[in-house]
Amino acid sequence: VIGYYVMIILIILIAFISVFTLPLMVVYPKTSFSLMLKFAFFLSGKYIFRTILAILIALIPIAMFLTPITMVLFFFVGLSAPTVLYALLLKPVKQFIISIAEEKE
Fold first, then answer.
1. CA–CA distance from 90 to each of 41, 46, 75, 81 (Å)?
2. pLDDT of 25 higher than 90
3. Whole-structure pTM over 0.90, yes or no?
4. Considering only CA atoms, which of 63, 12, 20 is closest in space to residue 39?
């Protein structure tokens, strides 16, 4: 039973870290992978509410396939609405990352 809980915690941790890897890769393209994971873990803790919302936004396309009405809506909205929501949600995070990059220079 303990293994199930450990795996659930690891899956949640991986989801939290994966939310911030793309903005980090844009700002710091030559950073080592381990340092990028550490910084993504820090950002997921700092912006925990935004992280949870970003994970929920990523589940929107999957949830759209649950009923026939939302399947039709998926063909019109598609992946663009979650992508725009994700970009708007993580804009302050990207500004924070850029401010740290400018501060180092």
1. 15, 12, 25, 14
2. no
3. no
4. 20
